[in-house]
Amino acid sequence: MNDLKKIDVVIIATIRPDILKITLNSFKNKLLNKFDVRVIVNVDPIGESGYTQNDIVEICREYFPNIVSRVPTIPSFSAAVQWCWSQVDTDYFFHLEDDWCLKSQVSVSKMIALLSINDVVSVRLNVTRNSKFTNNGSYAYSNGLSLNPSMMKSAYIKELLQKFDINKDPEKQFSGNEKTNNFICPLFLFYGNLNDKPIVIDTGTKWRENIGFSKWNKTGKILWNVKNKNKNSPYLKIKYKFFIIYWRFFYCN
Q: What is the pTM of this model?
């Protein structure tokens, strides 16, 4: 068993420094501050102009000095997930993308305690109320793997990697209660009490509106995609700036 003071954190990123800083700040202060963190980050070559992939890696290093990074020449969300997951060494790891803000304190110890239950393979931080999901009277759970911010059992993910299809959406290819040799009845839990409010905020939606950006393209391949609609809109740029200021002020301290 690895030292539970150490944790690998996977970050799937593109070139968008403002929301990345909100993500790193909020999760470091509210979840990861008591752990020896190694960050495994993939930075795809798409996003805001004026910055490089290495700029994003260095921003990660400011918050977590121990970094393993990949800066591919071709963007692919699915390839990014596959590579990051394959680098994990700790028994449990935290999966994170660069566009989430953590609103309140989270106990990693509580997440790991849930993961110590044999059938539990992930514990997710919810973007909606826990009460919207199925529960057994003690905790809420979903019917499949999610790439929302989650603590995951590495042994389960390593088995999924054996049949990972780089040409498919990572969530959709494992959309059901994906069974493996060692996890016949996997459970996907939500963190917290049954009546808890959302604990994370998706900051990426506003960014995509501002810059004209989406995750999937029309060919069906798992690639990042730039849209021209709304791009360079002054109204959306101002709206986005106020959005960034708000989340920095209220949730990054």
A: 0.86
